[in-house]
């Protein structure tokens, strides 16, 4: 029996306060999701996601990393609030990760090109893309070793290696227009001062920490970023280690908030909850600010007859649109086995 490659689908769910979810279903942690849009024919792996809070438009960047690179069809897509495709901007062979809206512009982490870029929010297929900065190898290219104390009193020392390839992945703005960016390969957090007005922009490294590097199967360390309500804490996902971290602003130590959130990818702080895209458990997980799980929304229910996933499949992040959350269903293959093109 032949199996079709699953269609790229973006999902949505109603965004109720976590307390209401618990009150309504005290013994059920799962909530449902429903399809929002299906990506155009030939476009796959929706990864970056942002919403224009003024008109509800949705922006999606793709992470198509097929080999050979000539097969890739990376796009920045613009949808209306109700899911009508408004525009496509072609990025070809270079996959995209983070996408953010700020002051009428869309900010793009061009992972394949190691660049931070910007484009008008009402872009068309021909709108120019502005380059703001290029990410480069850090010195040293890897973060310092990580010491682990074992229960028997012994000590493990985990050392990291890197060839200096940047891995810009997640980003978040503060209220002053400064932009914070994670580097999944070099274990770093960057800051771009006055990112809404700089051109070209300057990049500063504000954190290098072994907790920002990956030591597990997924090769991505520092990933999604989010601020708490008063922006005194920066929350950071480590996708490979399945950890949610926090760092006191500015320049405080990095510490662990929560463990075992497998494939902690995109991160969003909303209404007192941290929404973590758990790509390895096919769910959006809501944590409180003490790191306790308060809700889990979505699950993988198989592949439909049309080739599309039923439910979430390797979700990479979410964005709030009014009273609902839009979720990017990355459906990214980690293995090379034939017939396992969906995760």
TrEMBL record:
Q: Which InterPro entries match?
A: 6-blade_b-propeller_TolB-like, SMP-30/CGR1_Lactonase
* Keyword Signal on entry: yes
| Protein name per its UniProtKB record | SMP-30/Gluconolactonase/LRE-like region domain-containing protein
* Keywords, alphabetical: Signal
Query: So which residues are the signal peptide here?
Result: 1-23
